[in-house]
Design goal:
alpha+beta
Length: 116
């Protein structure tokens, strides 16, 4: 695949990720925030006592913001790959059948999606 086409594919993919992020922001603004509680449970007695554990809410995670961040990470990556900043390095790696730049992005976006 010619590097011009690879650059165009990354630009289009980046724009699509940005459009998805904008759509999520718009949807979250229309429907309101979705906060999910983060809780911990502490035992209130011995295991044999049968007493229910004490549940404490320690935080709330905004799912909408997490989704937007997960979509903006690949947007930024695609634009950097399509730019002169990382474009030549990316093309060279692809020609060598490697894709280390994308793996770095995956590492950040998968960490964010599992923890958002």
């Amino acid at each position: 695949m010619a590097h011009v086409n690879l650059r165009m594919l990354n630009l289009v993919a980046g724009i699509l990720h940005l459009a998805q992020a904008v759509a999520v922001v718009w949807t979250v603004n229309l429907s309101g925030r979705l906060l999910l509680p983060v809780t911990v449970e502490y035992p209130t007695g011995s295991p044999a006592s049968g007493l229910p554990p004490e549940r404490i809410s320690v935080a709330a995670v905004d799912v909408g913001i997490g989704a937007v961040i997960v979509l903006l990470l690949p947007f930024v990556t695609h634009l950097l790959i399509a730019s002169p900043i990382l474009g030549a390095r990316y093309r060279s790696a692809i020609e060598g059948q490697r894709n280390p730049i994308r793996w770095v992005e995956y590492a950040f976006s998968s960490r964010r999606s599992c923890c958002s």
